[in-house]
Specification:
Blueprint (H helix, E strand, L loop, with lengths): L26 H4 L2 H5 L11 H30 L3 H25 L4 H5 L14 H10 L14 H12 L3 H11 L6 H4 L11 H12 L5 H32 L11 H7 L6 H5 L5
């Protein structure tokens, strides 16, 4: 039998494509697709529950990559290998651009459709995402109270606590300023890194000097802009999260007991790298 225009059906094997995979690694094997594609287990008959599950599972996969990139960028900065961190932070921004776009799919779900399966969620909530918590800690937004939702899983709790007790990527950037000859308050350099970061005048002055002479401090200047780019996209993701939740549930309480939209709006006020935003008014 021939296809349109009288040509014989195309066989990729004629061009050398591998077509037999008995006992050999295939695409599905490498990506563990049987595990991934059977990891969705809706608890109701609601059509939109599958959308809700896939949205959050794929977000967790992107966050796994974000943690991988943040940890590598932090190590690079700590080791005075700043240039590789530029690529990792650029990728971080693109990851959060991807995560931001994903809210557009979830927004196709109406309040009525969400109501059909909301009770099946019990007390589960994105508020409890330990990977999101790790990203916040790595970026410097450390709050010991946020460890409590993870206390029931020792391995997760210990992993998060180790991240909270270690330097953030911004701590490492400030230490790089010191190694580059800038005068930073000793109390700032030796601060308890498990606590939330607070604005510091000496850090502000150092970054301002970098921005006023970028050619002299090009690597630091580029690092600062990569950090700002990451936080920019991180804020966009948070904002789209707020508007999506408000569109679907309004000002109801979240399934995890938070105040929902009100809680999320409070998170919009968090600034990860304050001096990098403040200095723009001084230029």
């Amino acid at each position: 039998m021939s296809d349109v225009k009288g040509l014989s059906p195309y066989d990729p094997a004629d061009d050398g494509a591998q077509m037999e995979f008995d006992g050999r690694m295939s695409y599905g094997d490498y990506l563990a697709l049987p595990k991934i594609l059977t990891a969705q287990a809706p608890l109701s008959d609601a059509h939109d529950e599958l959308l809700f599950i896939i949205q959050h599972q794929t977000s967790e996969l992107w966050m796994k990559l974000a943690i991988h990139e943040l940890l590598a960028a932090k190590r690079s900065i700590a080791g005075d290998r700043v240039e590789p961190a530029f690529k990792m932070l650029s990728r971080m921004a693109r990851i959060f651009e991807q995560l931001t776009g994903a809210w557009q799919v979830l927004r196709t779900m109406t309040p009525s459709e969400y109501t059909e399966f909301r009770d099946a969620l019990g007390q589960s909530s994105g508020f409890q995402s330990y990977q999101y918590r790790a990203i916040e800690f790595l970026a410097g937004n450390k709050n010991a109270a946020m460890m409590r939702p993870h206390a029931h899983v020792k391995g997760v709790h210990d992993w998060l606590e180790a991240i909270r007790q270690d330097t953030s990527i911004y701590d490492e950037a400030i230490r790089l300023l010191v190694r580059s000859g800038f005068e930073i308050d000793p109390d700032q350099v030796g601060r308890d890194v498990s606590l939330p970061y607070e604005r510091n005048e000496s850090v502000h002055a150092a970054w301002l000097a970098v921005y006023r002479d970028p050619h002299k401090h090009w690597a630091l200047y580029e690092l600062a802009e990569k950090l700002v780019d990451f936080e920019d996209y991180f804020r966009r993701w948070r904002f789209n999260h707020v508007t999506t939740v408000e569109r679907v549930i309004g000002f109801k309480r979240g399934t995890g007991g938070t105040s929902g939209v009100t809680y999320l709006k409070r998170m919009l006020e968090v600034v990860l790298f304050p001096e990098l935003w403040d200095i723009r008014a001084d230029m």
